[in-house]
Design goal:
The complex is a heterodimer of chains A (260) and B (248). Chain A has 260 residues and is an all-alpha fold. Chain A has one domain (41-254). Chain A has nine helices and no strands. Chain A has helices at residues 3-36, 42-53, 57-79, 88-126, 129-135, 140-177, 183-193, 196-222, 227-259. In chain A, helix 3 runs antiparallel to helix 4, helix 3 (57-79) packs parallel to helix 6 and helix 8 (196-222) runs antiparallel to helix 9 (227-259). Chain A is globular, with a radius of gyration of 22 Å. Helices cover 32% and strands 25% of the residues of chain B. Chain B is built from eight helices and ten strands. In chain B, the strands form two sheets. Chain B has a six-stranded mixed beta sheet with strand order 6-7-8-3-9-10, with helices on both faces. Chain B is globular. The chains are: A mainly alpha (260), B alpha/beta (248). The A-B interface holds A 39, 41, 124, 127-129, 131-132, 134-138 and B 45, 48-50, 70-71, 74-75, 77-79, 81-83, 85-88, 98-99, 102-105, 149.
Chain lengths: 260, 248
């Protein structure tokens, strides 16, 4: 291939990526200003709190409990190779709180909440409900986007905290019931080992992941193309983008917390 | 009241409006007709600011539609969307009273509900419909709810986007008659886009034919049949032969 053509194609890809990044940044900035400036829509906000927070507890709880249990088994089995089976409580606690809890909750929220927000808003767009909102003097960013993102910023850290507790509990059940650990010693080791920074990193990650998940759902929903295909594409793209950005943000935030 | 002057709008290479001029006097009902994809919806949405024209001027009461207080501007309008565009998550009465439950026109909830039920009655729906969700209603009932929502805040200007699409002829007649009654009763200025000729005859004071991005003919509905305009003649008689290219 001609090097000039190759360069031109590369340039087009870079420009497209930068334009997408610019649009996304403007959308996120707009969301932030709409969250802070009245009018506010408390009914929409509380409805989003319920949908994103309360109704996600079962899926978050099940994910956490199975992960905690499996982690305890893995650490016990791996630790046995160098006579370190006793570290199960500490590694389960740190693994869940610092890494698996926030990431798995973030990904479950991306699957459950991002997809649902994107599909709902995209459907509203293709059925002209967004245009109807505008003609009824209601800004779609204020009415649809700001309440959902604000609710996710509040509820996802709480979900992460719930996931952390349930995940540790899963490890505890497996360790005490199957692996012969003493119940009181397991709890004491877990509590003694965890530090304030571990929990803080978990909650900060939860907040960031919640913001990413809801913003991606809203962004792709608002950008949706026409018809069922447009709704499907918006939903798929929103989950892909949210999952990738959550994993990338996790890497960056982990690096930041390690450097503290 | 509404003046569109030399309005252009393109989507990529597709030049939809190519210098559209239109005048709708206050208190009259203008129906814009034209084939599918000729830009009728684009013209209507441009007036509301839902689509930004590439060039040209749109004046409402002599003021540019894109200047001044946007909320106050939109508060003067009501719109019936083609598919109803009712909010799925809200019961019917909250759809109708949407504008009365928030923003500058906010009223107490009980009063807003009362107004919603009164508007539902005005469009021929019973009060028991108020607490149903839009998905539980037939297409005709959804159109009526959309109409009730459009008139709930007593707007000065009402837009109707394909008001009879998807309805059977009897229900189309009912909706056309309702629109005409309501527009006359409220003294509102109306702009309707349709390709249903029975709607044109029932609703219009004046008719404009949009083709190739410009208004090919405009005049009183009474002059429509004897216009002598080949585009309008072909359209109103539904002929395949004529200056408008029919894709087979």
């Amino acid at each position: 291939m001609n090097p000039i053509t190759l360069l031109a194609q590369l340039g087009r890809v870079v420009l497209t990526a930068l334009a997408a990044l610019g649009r996304l940044s403007m959308f996120a900035g707009g969301t932030l200003t709409h969250m802070l400036r009245p009018p506010f829509y408390p009914r929409e906000f509380f409805s989003a709190l319920l949908n994103i927070g309360w109704l996600s507890i079962p899926v978050v709880g099940l994910t956490a409990v199975f992960t905690g249990g499996a982690l305890a088994l893995q650490i016990y089995s791996g630790g046995a190779r160098f006579n370190a089976e006793a570290v199960v409580p500490q590694i389960v606690a740190i693994g869940i709180v610092r890494e698996l809890g926030p990431v798995l909750v973030g990904l479950m929220i991306a699957a459950r909440v991002t997809s649902s927000i994107a599909a709902e808003i995209a459907t509203m767009k293709v059925t002209e409900q967004i245009d109807a909102l505008v003609t009824l003097s209601t800004h779609p960013m204020k009415y649809l986007v700001a309440p959902r993102v604000a609710a996710a910023l509040i509820t996802v850290p709480l979900l992460v905290a719930v996931g952390d507790i349930i995940g540790i509990a899963g490890g505890y059940v497996v360790a005490t019931e199957n692996l012969g650990f003493n119940s009181a010693a397991y709890i004491k080791n877990t509590v003694d080992f965890l530090e304030f920074n571990d929990m803080m990193s978990s909650l900060v990650k939860g907040c960031a992941f919640g913001g990413i998940a809801a913003t991606m759902g809203c962004y792709y929903g608002m950008q949706s193309g026409r018809g069922a295909q447009g709704v499907g594409a918006a939903t798929k793209s929103s989950v892909e983008a949210a999952a990738i950005l959550i994993l990338a943000a996790n890497f960056v935030l982990t690096g930041m917390f390690f450097s503290l | 009241m509404i003046h569109m002057q030399n309005v252009h709008k393109a989507f990529g290479d597709n030049r939809v409006l190519r210098g559209m001029d239109l005048h709708i006097p206050k208190g009259t009902s203008m129906v814009i007709i034209g084939g599918s994809g000729t830009g009728k919806s684009v013209a209507l949405k441009s007036v509301l600011g839902l689509i930004k024209p590439d060039s040209g001027t749109i004046l409402v009461d002599g003021k540019p539609s894109d200047s001044g207080d946007r909320d106050a501007f939109l508060a003067r309008f009501g719109m019936l969307f083609q598919g109803g565009a009712l909010f799925d998550s809200l019961p019917v009465w909250q759809n109708v009273a949407f504008r009365l439950l928030r923003g500058s026109l906010k009223r107490p909830e009980a009063e807003a509900r009362e107004i919603a039920i009164e508007k539902l009655r005005r469009v021929g729906l019973k009060a028991d419909v108020a607490d149903r969700l839009p998905a539980e209603l037939s297409g005709g009932m959804q159109k009526r709810v959309g109409l009730a929502r459009a008139i709930a805040a007593e707007p000065e200007i009402i837009f109707f986007d394909e008001p009879t699409t998807g309805l059977d002829p009897i229900m189309s007649g009912v909706i056309n008659d309702l629109i005409r009654e309501i527009v006359v009763e409220m003294g509102a200025t109306a702009m309707t886009i349709t390709h249903d000729m029975s709607s044109v005859r029932a609703i219009a004071d004046n008719v404009a034919m949009l083709h190739d991005g410009v208004i090919q003919w405009t005049g009183p509905v009474a002059d429509m049949d004897a216009s002598g305009d080949p585009y309008l003649d072909q359209f109103i008689h539904g002929r395949a032969e004529g200056p408008i290219e029919a894709v087979r």
